[in-house]
Amino acid sequence: MSTEIPEDFWPQIDHQLERIATEKPDTFEAVRDLLLDLNYDQIVVEVHRNGPRPFDLDSAFFAGSGGDATLLDALERAGWQTVAFAASYHYAMTHPVTGETLTYIEGDVLRGDHLSSR
């Protein structure tokens, strides 16, 4: 994989997903850092298109939810396992080594399992 970040939005999404799959982040924080990497300038523009979106230490956003490649697939390739699945746009995953969990809800990525406990 090229370490150079492409210029356009969808190539940046593909690059971001490939980084997740190959760098294999095993904590929510590491996934969050990849998703909110400011070097993905076209992704940043899209995420904040309708005004600034603040993210805290327990939240991030995946902007490529309409594309062919998915965050679910990238996380599975990185070793994460699905623990709850309501739909392709709402699921929870855990990392088998660290035990950390995250929930994906229509692009929002949240620390912890916000699906199984419902």
Can you put this structure into words, describing what you see?
A 5-stranded antiparallel sheet has the order 1-5-4-3-2, with helices on one face. The protein is an alpha+beta fold and 118 residues long. The model has no long low-confidence stretch (mean pLDDT 95). It has one domain.
Number of strands: 5
Report the biggest beta sheet as strand number plus sense, adding barrel if it closes.
Answer: 5 strands, antiparallel
Give start-end ranges of low-pLDDT stretches.
none
- Structural class comes to alpha+beta
Q: How many structural domains?
A: 1
Coarse morphology: globular
Order of helices and strands: HHHEHEEEE
Tags for this model:
118 residues, five-stranded antiparallel β-sheet, 20% strand
Topology (elements, then pairings):
Layout: H1 9-23, H2 28-35, H3 41-47, E1 59-61, H4 71-77, E2 81-87, E3 90-94, E4 101-105, E5 108-111
Antiparallel strand pairs: 1-5, 2-3, 3-4, 4-5
